[in-house]
Amino acid sequence: MTRSRGARRSTGSICSQPCSTPPSSCGVNIRFGVESLLRRAPGIGDAAASALSCSLLYEAHPLGVPRLLFARMVMNVLLEGTVGAVPIAGDAFDVIFRANRRNVALLREHFARVGY
Fold first, then answer.
1. Domain boundaries, the chain
2. Which helix (H) or strand (E) element contains residue 32?
3. pLDDT digits over 26-51, tens only?
């Protein structure tokens, strides 16, 4: 039994953007997700965050997305996991890159094209 598109959309949103920093005096307001917080814990946090990212891939596969699209989604997760493992710079990359939001956007574009 597959989850609805709305549930998949919320999975990507929960992973990538439910929290934000308070606006600073220079007006910076950075939004980040649970996954970014998980990646702050070295090793186990990175593994847990990557597993969370893979849940979206797990949901997308049975929907019959094209292999090229699925490969692109996998590459987004691999890139975020690999670069995210680098201390400090990887954490900043994770907040900026947002693989899950990219993957949800790819799925939305695909389903809009095929009329699903």
1. 5-114
2. strand 31-32
3. 555 666 667 667 767 777 888 888 88
Between helix 44-60 and helix 5-16 the angle, nearest 10°, is 160
Name residue 1's amino acid.
M
For residue 50, how far is the Cα from the chain centroid? 9
Given a contact cutoff of 8 angstroms between Cβ atoms, the answer to whether 54 and 68 are in contact is: no
Q: How many CB atoms are closer than 10 A to CB 20?
A: 10
Name the amino acid, one letter, at 66.
P
- At 50-91, the pLDDT tens digits run 888 899 999 999 998 999 999 999 999 999 889 988 888 887
Q: How far apart are CA 91 and CA 16, in angstroms?
A: 13
- Cα 74-107-104 angle, rounded to 5 deg: 75
